[in-house]
Design goal:
Elements: H1 3-8, H2 10-28, H3 35-42, H4 46-52, H5 56-79, H6 85-100, H7 109-116, H8 123-147, H9 152-168, H10 174-197
Length: 198
């Protein structure tokens, strides 16, 4: 692509850069991928990358932001599929299972990223924690409504089940992992409902 074409389509170039980085970061990891490979596969110049992103870290944060928005949309769609709080919990769980069963599944983008950025002060680490806090708050609120209690323990339990399923889903039979995860979610719901009626 010529520089003049890049100048006419700046958002298209940015989209290609982010799409390329997303594909490679998710499939191969973040540290192992250099800027030169991303620009070559996106068919843009380094100058174009730096017009849209201040550097690789900015591109990584954009990748995680895009993943965050995708998951928020997925959860919103699941919640919108039924009025029942328990039904919404099940719908969120099924949306997770859909991801585990999808071609090219390589685990949780956020858990993968935080494994490469263990420093709690690093912006990538903080972005992962912010996403995870939102997800925990969301399922805790749903489980509180489903069970009538505070939902805090149930929310933590759901997130731990989800983390295990996301890790196992790319290592073992995704159907078996999905079935086990959904069975575990039913146990969390039952436990939350039993505690509220005790």
């Amino acid at each position: 692509m010529s520089p003049s074409t890049e100048a006419r389509n700046p958002s298209e170039a940015r989209d290609r850069l982010l799409g390329t980085a997303t594909r490679i970061f998710y499939a191969e990891g973040i540290h192992s991928v250099g800027i030169d490979r991303i620009t070559a596969e996106a068919q843009v110049t380094r100058a174009t990358l730096y017009r849209h992103f201040s550097g690789k870290e900015d591109l990584i944060l954009a990748y995680l932001d895009q993943a965050d928005r995708g998951i928020r949309g997925q959860v919103a769609a699941a919640r919108g599929s039924t009025d029942s709080a328990a039904g919404q919990v099940r719908a969120v769980a099924r949306s997770i299972v859909d991801g585990i069963r999808s071609p090219g599944f390589r685990g949780c983008a956020f858990l993968n990223a935080v494994a490469e950025y263990p420093d709690p002060a690093h912006p990538v680490h903080r972005a992962v924690l912010a996403h995870r806090q939102w997800f925990l708050d969301t399922v805790t609120e749903l489980l509180a409504r489903a069970g009538g209690g505070d939902g805090e323990a149930a929310g933590r339990h759901f997130v731990m089940l989800r983390d295990g399923a996301m890790a196992a889903g790319c290592l073992f039979d995704p159907e078996l992992v999905s079935e086990t995860f959904l069975h575990g979610v039913e146990g969390v719901l039952r436990d939350a409902q039993e505690k509220s009626s005790a």
